[in-house]
Write a structure and sequence with these properties.
By secondary structure, this protein is an alpha/beta fold. It has 6 helices and 6 strands, in the order E-H-H-E-H-H-E-H-H-E-E-E.
Length: 137
């Protein structure tokens, strides 16, 4: 069974009680190991509402957190550079998240697959109902 790295969008929709997302995250957490990048953690904490504090940290602390190591930072920088040469600007956060998945052999689960154009990255997209499917590359 493959393991997953959740992007921020998945967790935001879970925390905001978007239909299907609680079930999706719980199902994947039951089936596999689920991780987040510490960059995702930063994005979630930065955007949380005061009333979400406890639920947010309960969720974030229930997931394995992958710190940004020098290997992840280097790979993220290389991704940004490579895609910039092709005329595509990757955001720093997306590059770190992609590098975290690649360095750890994880499937990236996201609501925004267009932010992750790397063909070597396995990306699963969650739709509006919380169903997840592999994106075509």
């Amino acid at each position: 069974m493959p393991d997953y790295l959740f992007d921020s969008g998945i967790l935001i929709l879970h925390l905001r009680n978007q239909p299907g997302y609680l079930e999706l995250t719980n199902r994947l957490m039951d089936e596999a190991e689920v991780y987040i990048s510490t960059m995702t953690r930063l994005e979630i904490v930065r955007g949380m509402k005061k009333r979400e504090h406890r639920d947010t940290f309960d969720l974030l602390d229930s997931l394995e957190n992958i710190p940004m190591t020098s290997m992840i930072a280097d790979r993220a920088g290389e991704l940004i550079h490579t895609w910039q040469e092709r005329g595509i600007n990757l955001g720093n956060a997306d590059a770190v998240i992609a590098a975290s998945a690649l360095e750890n052999g994880l499937i990236l689960a996201t609501t925004n697959p267009k932010h992750f154009p790397m063909p070597e990255l396995v990306v699963f997209q969650a739709d509006e109902q919380g169903h997840i499917t592999q994106t075509a590359r």
